[in-house]
Specification:
Length: about 400
């Protein structure tokens, strides 16, 4: 490969062989034909230098050494040969000098274009994209399993006309308890002990981390007249000690449907639709009476164990480990909205009716994907996360 000519010193591309620094008389030139051959010599030296590959800096050095105003060869020749020439040689020196000058200028212009295209070429080599090289592999993340289950459940409820609302994780006791029919000193508050925020002295109301997504029932009904059909996905907090089934932070989806003529049948039908969509069409549901302060009647929903087909017996014989032989698995609590709650949001309790439910996302995810420790959701161990791409 040709390498661009690089000047390593001033004499590397010198135009001078000392002859240009001497006069014609010193050189013993007395005849016009001697002038012609002297100029031919100079021209040959220039041609040899200009024929090397040039990049822009070496082209500039070449130009300076030949056309430079102070010490370029042309200047020296003008000073030493032309001006000092005897009258009978002046004419031929002048002619040769003009020819040489024209030749230098034309050649240098051409070589300048060459130097430019050489530079362009090396830039294009440097910047050329080699499509055969392996690309930069950036690992692509995925949604956390909890987020995936949220999405799955949201999609099911979207398909039957619910929409999503979200609310604050820091709540007032009014929204978290009182407006949900849980007055101070109600025993249920013991089950929902939570974290209170350190507030500056003189703060009017205490603030706490919500223990459930239910405060959004109140906030939604305050803003919106019936019909209301919303689900509320989000994080909730309780003062639970961490173990395989407890965490101080976990996830819920609250659901609320209120209209003028919603019946208990609408309620159980909706829940059953959801459970079959989530666990598959072969599961059965049942409900047992339960108690929540803000629903009346309240129920606990169970699903027939999807792992043993609701038999309580594992496929290899023996007791099903998932339902411990019970054939049913507890899912979540729900109920018809307690008319007392409507009083807090200025709904007419005689006309309004509806139902609410609170689904524990972590529990559902553990059930569906066979996870036996809730803590793995919060440890962010990629070995676990990679199993749910
Ligand atoms: Zn089972």
């Amino acid at each position: 490969m040709l390498r661009p000519f690089k000047a390593t010193g001033t004499d590397a591309m010198s135009s001078s062989d000392n002859k240009t620094e001497r006069t014609l008389a010193d050189l013993g030139v007395t005849q016009p034909d001697q002038v012609v051959s002297l100029f031919a010599e100079v021209r040959a030296r220039f041609d040899s230098q200009a024929s090397r590959p040039l990049d822009h800096p070496s082209w500039e050095i070449l130009r300076q050494s030949w056309l430079g105003r102070k010490s370029g060869a042309l200047t020296l020749i003008t000073e030493n040969w032309l001006k000092a020439a005897s009258p009978d040689l002046k004419r031929s020196v002048g002619q040769e000098l003009n020819k040489l000058k024209a030749h230098l200028e034309t050649t240098l212009d051409e070589r300048k274009l060459d130097a430019q295209s050489l530079a362009d070429h090396s830039v294009s080599i440097r910047e050329r994209v080699d499509l055969s090289l392996p690309g930069v592999i950036r690992p692509i993340g995925s949604h956390h399993l909890i987020r995936q289950v949220f999405q799955e459940i949201e999609d099911i409820f979207f398909s039957i006309g619910f929409s999503v609302v979200e609310g604050p994780e820091i709540e007032t006791p009014y929204y978290n308890f009182e407006a949900l029919n849980i007055p101070e000193f109600h025993p249920v508050r013991d089950d929902m002990d939570t974290f209170y925020l350190d507030l500056p002295k003189g703060a009017k109301t205490p603030l706490l981390l919500r223990t459930h997504t239910s405060p959004m029932q109140i906030r939604t009904m305050e803003k919106q007249k019936p019909p209301v059909r919303v689900i509320v996905p989000g994080k909730v907090y309780r003062r639970d000690n961490p173990d395989a089934t407890h965490s101080f932070a976990f996830h819920q989806i609250e659901g609320l449907a209120v209209d003028t003529d919603i019946t208990f049948c609408d309620f159980t039908g909706t829940i059953e639709y959801f459970v079959k969509q989530f666990f598959g069409p072969s599961v059965k549901t049942r409900f047992r009476p339960s108690y929540f302060p803000f629903t009346e009647p309240s129920v606990e929903f169970d699903v027939s164990c999807p792992f043993c087909g609701g038999t309580g017996t594992a496929s290899g014989g023996g007791t099903c480990a998932k339902c411990k032989g019970a054939a049913w698995i507890e899912l979540f609590g729900a109920g018809m909205v307690d008319p007392a709650v409507y009083g807090f949001v200025n709904y007419d309790a005689k006309k309004a009716s509806g139902f609410a439910f609170g689904i524990g996302i972590d529990r559902l995810a553990m059930l569906k994907y066979g996870i036996d420790d809730i803590q793995v959701f919060f440890q962010n161990d990629v070995r676990f996360l990679r199993q749910f791409p």
